[in-house]
Write a structure and sequence with these properties.
403 residues; alpha/beta
């Protein structure tokens, strides 16, 4: 059984994975927003193509069917999500005129960190994939082996944002995909999965925190870092007890106007604003008022338009009854979504105890679609975090003993 596990290639993990939706590195941020708002994935891949890509109908396209080129000419150079856009718009100069900021190329959103996204072949071994992830790769871009026949290409209408090169589509694998795969063979690692995370020494004390009453704007840098680290920003009280979190996974389900809330609200109020019920009307009024006070008229107009599209009306005849009611979602929230494709996140943190077993924490993280679990003591004092990366280190060490 152990030999069988080690013999797996990445193609085995790609079964059933959807083809990547993609953007050209020269696309604008506004174009990226359109893709993100109509996608079931939080991220969209960004590609750099040195050749002239043509669709099946012969028209040039930054993403579509690309024929007659060298594979090395076209590479996935990164990924972007709504959080990248939100943090970008939080810059003072972009709040003044968000419409101008959104015309910039999507390349300005890409983190200047090499190796976050890597191309690998379907024949890449599971061990090699784990090593790449532990070295810092967040996503492994893998060609989907099934090739499209010429006849199928002629009759199939290509998605304008799905990358297909020489009849090949691409998918990507994440830490979660690998952890899920290992969980299916968890018995091979016995008794390690039953050990507590404290015993295994995988509780990290390197955590990002912000105090509940602090301005949420003070957490912008931490939010950007947590996106890269695939973790979150813990919101704590004055005694270090965990109250909630400002999570990239939650922010990714919002629209770009949340940047206005980040710049004007406290951390505690921001948690309430981005929670799954939708922003409360009184918080919306606070954001609008503070944008006006700071003469951020560009963002105020953008924000007001978004709230109006979401169903907000400042001329409500029953303000008291509306004050505690969440507003209808705007942007991505208003569209129907498959629960299996996307779980709506809240500001409530997922927690465990230092004595929790490794397998229990794995299941917690997977069931809530997060890459980490906060570790707290009985008194809710935050002591650390356990990530998928920490878990993979344990399994990688054990795999060496059965190789």
């Amino acid at each position: 059984m152990a030999v069988r596990l080690l013999s797996h290639e990445l193609s085995d993990l790609c079964l059933g994975k959807p083809a990547l939706r993609s953007l050209s590195v020269t696309s604008t941020i506004a174009e990226a927003l359109e893709v993100l708002k109509t996608s079931d994935d939080n991220f969209v891949s960004v590609w750099s193509c040195d050749h002239k890509a043509k669709t099946s109908s012969g028209f040039e396209s930054a993403a579509g069917f690309c024929d007659n080129y060298d594979d090395d000419d076209c590479r996935c150079v990164g990924k972007v999500c709504m959080v990248d856009v939100i943090c970008y718009l939080c810059k003072d100069e972009n709040l003044v005129s968000p419409s101008v900021a959104l015309k910039e190329p999507v390349s300005v959103l890409l983190p200047k960190i090499p190796g976050l996204v890597l191309h690998v072949e379907p024949s890449c071994s599971l061990l090699k994939a784990i090593d790449l992830i532990l070295e810092g790769a967040q996503n492994l871009v893998v060609p989907i082996k099934t090739k499209l026949s010429n006849k199928r290409k002629q009759h199939q209408k290509p998605s304008p944002t799905v990358t297909v090169h020489k009849g090949r589509e691409f998918c990507w694998l994440t830490q979660e995909d690998v952890i899920r795969f290992l969980l299916s063979s968890i018995g091979l690692f016995s008794p390690v999965p039953t050990f507590s995370i404290d015993t295994l020494g995988i509780i990290s004390s390197e955590i990002l925190t912000i105090e509940y009453h602090s301005p949420a704007s003070a957490a912008i840098g931490a939010i950007s870092r947590s996106l890269v680290d695939q973790t979150s920003v813990a919101v704590v009280d004055s005694e270090g007890c965990l109250i909630g979190e400002i999570s990239p996974f939650t922010l990714a389900c919002c629209d770009e106007t949340v940047a206005a809330a980040v710049k004007t609200l406290s951390s505690g109020d921001l948690m309430a604003y981005i929670d799954c019920g939708g922003p409360l009307e009184d918080l919306v009024r606070v954001v609008s008022s503070r944008l006006k006070e700071r003469n951020l008229n560009g963002m105020l107009e953008h924000f007001s338009m978004s709230m109006s599209c979401g169903g907000f009306s400042s001329s409500s005849s029953d303000e008291e009854s509306m004050a505690a009611s969440p507003l209808p979602r705007s942007g991505r929230y208003s569209r129907s979504m498959s629960y299996s494709a996307r779980m709506v996140r809240t500001a409530e943190a997922i927690v465990c105890h230092p004595k929790s077993s490794l397998v229990a924490v794995m299941i917690q993280a997977i069931s809530h679609r997060v890459n980490y679990v906060w570790v707290i003591e009985d008194d809710c004092r935050l002591v650390g975090i356990v990530t998928f990366s920490d878990m993979l280190k344990v399994f990688r060490e054990h795999l060496e003993t059965i190789a």
